[in-house]
Amino acid sequence: MEIYDGGADASQAEQQAELQVEGVPEFAEIPEEVHAPLPVAELHLHIEGTLEPELIFALAERNGITLPYADLDELRARYEFTDLQSFLDLYYANMAVLRTEQDFADMTRAYLTRAAAAGVRHAEIMMDPQAHLSRGVSLETCVNGVASVLAGSEQEFGISTLLIAAFLRDLSEESALEVLEQLLAVNAPIVGIGLDSAEAGNPPSKFERLFARAKDAGLRRTAHAGEEGPPSYIIEALELLDVERLDHGIRCMEDSELVERLVTEHMPLTVCPLSNVRLRAVDTLAEHPLAGMLAAGLNVSVNSDDPAYFGGYVDDNFAQLKSVIGLSEFDCVRLAANSIRSSFASEERKTELLAELAASGR
Length: 362
Ligand SMILES: [Zn+2]
Fold this sequence. Notes:
Blueprint: H1 12-19, E1 40-46, H2 53-62, H3 72-76, H4 84-94, H5 101-117, E2 120-127, H6 129-133, H7 139-150, H8 153-157, E3 160-168, H9 173-185, E4 192-196, H10 208-216, E5 220-225, H11 231-240, E6 245-248, H12 256-264, E7 268-271, H13 273-278, H14 290-295, E8 299-302, H15 307-310, H16 314-325, H17 329-341, H18 347-359
Parallel strand pairs: 1-2, 2-3, 3-4, 4-5, 5-6, 6-7, 7-8
Helix pairs in contact: 5-7, 9-10, 17-18
Bound molecules: zinc ion.
Residues 44, 46, 196, 224, 247, 305 line the site of zinc ion.
């Protein structure tokens, strides 16, 4: 398997050229509505969740697959979810169109194109190898398809990238361990592991050995916890899995002692507001706990999770938060800085992105 090095350094010459474009108005002269999006890091993103309906139909046609939907409208009509499981059912069904390395590469390229427009400058992308292995798609096919595009992402899209192998918590720990060993054996270009899929009834404690093995292998560790699951799942993820980041974590707000601990530890929480609304983890965006989390001093960032399914990318999340909960420009900058600092990027890259954020004039 080809080794992917996390993305080459951006071309400084290209950056200089962009800075020297003549005739560009000063930032302050640009009306608010056309301000470029803030430079952010996206830390909670499932690449399979970026599969837009149009691409699903295009890949199905290319692979000679008959979809159970007559047209785009019929597929879109299925995007009304009642809970996490109702989304997961469609999410796994749609993966059937991903067969070849080219399919995975096309999906990844489509995400990076859209993410670049959303202001994403660094992305840590999760993929679910088990969801593909179970369909008879090899590890090489899915990993190489994604990694081949990530290898050139900084040059092609201005986005540095890292790949995270996420494990499906509704499957056994044995299955996860087996796949992790396969990834390690082929030197797969992953920076770390994650834990996703159906949370309720599948507590972090089920994956203690998996996370210990990943730590031994020098991998970074993150896990979904406290999305639908109770605050105790967050505590388990911290204490039993030794995670460095929590995905979602919004239910920590039900436990003030836990909030205090997370604040003290500066534990990053990758919050996904539009996802939480679509999956009914919160009733409406107006009631989303993000503002309270910021006020409590939690290290939160804003992410899109599965943007093709949840009504938007990172910029859409920010735009809706601004209009619905009145998120201030100051808080947006704070969220962007949190996302950069909470990433697994090199210190050098983080410094570069924080400088870019500071220079954005907000
Ligand atoms: Zn997620």
